[in-house]
Amino acid sequence: MLIISIMSHSALKKKDDDLEDVPLEQPSPIIGVEEDVDFDTAPIKRLCPYCNQKVITFVEEEMHPLFFMMALFSLIIFGLLSFILLPLAFLLTKSAIHRCSRCLQRIGMRQCYGLPKSVEDDVWQFRFGKCAVVMARLYAIILLSIIAIACLAYAWKGPALMSSQPLNYDKPLPTHLINATWDEFLDDCGGKVIVENYIHARAVFNRKYENQLVIWTGLYAGVKEVKGQTLWGTDHALNLFVKMSPTESYLYPDLMLSVSSQMLNNDRDLLLLNKGDEIRFKARILGMGDEVRMHHLHLVELAGTGEHKELGVELILRDSY
């Protein structure tokens, strides 16, 4: 028994010696991979510090946490123009997050934009994705100042510049009743006058008619209720269309009267008028028409005259003012 035990011990020792002589197989390195490469917006080969494996990262894009604040200020300053600027700002401010394709841990990040690290640097670098703008500090300050002044000028003068009104627009006069007739209005601000000289017609309208009360007579041509009314009422609950004489169009009404929700609730008979009924109305002039839009007034009082006249054709009612 002792001999067998000694032989068994010798055999095990020899087997262990044989295993020690066999070199362990080392994992083959990935050729062409640098451990200290910078992260980019595209997947790269990287050593994961969590699972200690060399992997090709996968990239997911995240929105910058300050993007909502920037969007709010953009809406306040630039108005509708911000809907053009915000998509560009989103693309420039998003971040590329690199994650390990094995353990899904976050191992790096690359911001798609970058600002100078210090204002004291002689050279400033602005990074936009894979592009960069490098310039001297003095020229960068001058360029940023010009952009800031342009933005402030747009925010201050933008609404006036985008308006279709001429630059010499006068403030409307206080409201009072004037004796101008429909014929006089056509001579001053009718469609033919607008086509010939819009600026002159607009100046006359601003000086003589805008925000003033008139009493005219015309033929009822139809109504359209305005959708999206609020609980507190509105000045445009109903649009009432009027065909005047002489008329400016064969297919369209000449005027559109806006009816407030309060007036509509107090006088539901407005909806009972028949097309062609002659009406006498008192209204405040709000807007001058053109080749596309009708003249726009706000109804104050309305009464039927008892007369009726056929319109002849089915007029096209359009809510344009």
UniProtKB/TrEMBL annotation:
> Could you identify this protein by its name?
LITAF domain-containing protein
Where the record annotates domain LITAF, the positions are 28-112
- Membrane-spanning residues: 66-92, 136-156
Recorded superkingdom: Eukaryota
Q: Which InterPro entries does its entry note? A: LITAF (IPR006629)
Record has Protein biosynthesis as a keyword: no
Query: Which terms are listed as keywords in the entry?
Result: Membrane, Transmembrane, Transmembrane helix
Species of provenance? Halteria grandinella
